[in-house]
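To the team - zinc ion complex, inputs and output below.
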Amino acid sequence: MVQIAPSILAADFARLGEAIRLVETGGADVIHVDVMDGHFVPNITMGPPVVASIRKVTTLPLDVHLMIEDPDAYIQSFVDAGADWISVHIETCPHLDRTLQLIQSLGAKPGVVLNPATSLRTLDEALRLVDYVLIMTVNPGFGAQRFRPYTLEKIQRLRKVIQHKGLSARIEVDGGVSLENVPDLVGNGAEILVAGTQIFGDPDPAAAVRKMKALAEQCAVDRQTIA
Ligand code: DX5
Ligand code: ZN
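Output:
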């Protein structure tokens, strides 16, 4: 099953509760929360207090994407606030094993994120330690950017490595995800689709989730038929 993870970065921050209810109605599986610190990426968004508020209005898993330097210093606060999944950028983690262990020891699902130009080779040892790998399909920092098509081949290679090693890590993709590229993304192995603009830019976000989910599920069936 392909999961849809609406990114609230594209929602109206003054009406987050309403935005989350709408995508829940549409069948969203996860809520994606983009945390930016103005250092690792050139933008500042939200922190643990916002996560704590969101936690009160939904039972969906909260997928917290940390685009911050020194994530270890903040992981406990995000778990306390109600994060269920926490992903860290490999580019920010010199002691990745320790960071992933920390996330797991606090009861959250650990994920690792790769920027578009970061090689899959950096994952060799860590792949066994994560629940999911988030492949950035844009450079992190802003919503509404153009999808980088060369990342499709990277997703396909990652899928093969995971299969070859018999691991259970799932592949999440984030950035510029739209109805146009969902067939290619899912066809190459994406299992969790993060989408901001495509969903919250639609006057009917619930319908936008429904549409993306139906398309993704169809593509997943096609993928299995071909494989
Ligand atoms: C980018 C963020 C994404 C972003 C996706 O740095 O990680 O989650 O919100 O937004 P869209 O779907 O608009 O590209
Ligand atoms: Zn994100």
